[in-house]
Amino acid sequence: MGHRLSGRGVSRREFGLLAGAAGLSFGLSPAALRTALAEDAPNAAQIIAGKSPDMIILNAQLGVMETPLNLLRQHAHTPKEILFNRLHYPHEGDASWYATTEPPGAPRREDWRISIDGLVERTRSLSIADLEGMDQVKRVMVIQCAGNGRSFYAAKEKVAGGQWKNGGMGNIEWEGVPLKPLLADQEVAPSSFARWLTASGWDQPATFEGSDFAKSYPVSDPALDNAILALKMNGEPIPAVHGGPVRLIIPGYYGNMNVKFLTALSFAAEQSPSAFQSVGYRMPLVPVEPGQFEANDYTIYNSVPTYGQKIKSVIFSPLPEDNAKAGEVEISGVAFNDGLAQITSVEVTADGGASWMSADIKPPESPWAWHHWSTKAMLTSGTNKLMSRATDALGRTQPMDGLTRWNPRGYEWNGLDVVEIAA
Length: 423
Ligand SMILES: Nc1nc2c(c(=O)[nH]1)N[C@H]1C(S)=C(S)[C@@H](COP(=O)(O)O)O[C@H]1N2
Ligand SMILES: [Mo]
Known about the structure:
Strand order of the largest sheet: 4-3-12-7-8
Structural class: mainly beta
Helix content: under 10%
CATH topology of the largest domain: Sulfite Oxidase, Chain A, domain 2
Number of strands: 22
Bound molecules: ligand MTE, molybdenum atom
Largest sheet: 5 strands, mixed
Order of helices and strands: HHHEEHEEHEEHEEEEEEHEEEEEEEEEE
């Protein structure tokens, strides 16, 4: 159960298949293949029971979907019905298990165990009841796929994978047990040789050679100080599809770092050999151009994991479908970063950058939450090019040209957000 790493790791080719856009290359039943290829593709509610049928499907077979912004902007905390979803292993048939709090075939909630193991004095095993008996804390934070915005890189060169626009994110209230005190337990006593902490999920690859979903963090990483073993999402037990019964939540970190169905926290001298840690979800250390560096060229030496979220802003209103008219409008949206520095400004233009206004930023619920901002602007008849740009107290800002951060796996898009309005 969980934490199974194939002996020799995963080959680059296999990882390519695993992470491939369609995922059609491995072990699909004829029924699933038909669904994946069907012309009248299923809506989100048919793929994951309880999801809004208006979700945008990126990969029906893996249940990958993003939220249309006109739904996302309606809620301070993103309801489970419209939260984007990303899972790496195929699932097929009965969609209703998503409405439960344990994935199908997994141990029931009462039998679930999380082991704290590896380079420790004594392994510790926790049940959900153990966790429920401890002090709980809340963390409101943006959860966002590192691939969110990937489609915008196509202006330079299209990269493989789900073509996310801006809807691969949500603002969620998680609740659970702080991680650090669990790890600091006297009995566990991690060895001084333990440099990495690896979190493993219960989900398993479809093939024996496939790589387990595991993520590693340096044990000294200060982001772990705010991490929790979450049992609740928006005040309810976490739906299985979003990682129930227990999920590691690291505020400020990209989605992939927040391991669902947590089964093990393991101390080791090295980071996990899982392809999801060592090849995937990484950024090249230096800027690269298409053709210079390929999706399979990533090593732990020439790239870094997608840890903290790069500062970003997204325009929520007006959207093209709002049919805004010429005259005064309110432009509003959200901004967020890794939570390490306050977001000090959001600059907005309604005329393609000729003039900029400073938006008002509402105090956020937490350093890691959406920062709502708004400003008034004049639209003229014809095409109006709206753009937004957030900056934080460390001077970190969004690149004027997001394409300068082009990378073969299409992660960490944080270019200026652009919305064109025909008024
Ligand atoms: N165990 C496990 N955890 C996982 C994943 C997965 O496939 N398995 N996907 C990750 C990725 S890439 C993202 S973006 C987020 C998605 O979270 P959500 O589906 O709850 O929105 O979960 C992360 N945690
Ligand atoms: Mo992701």
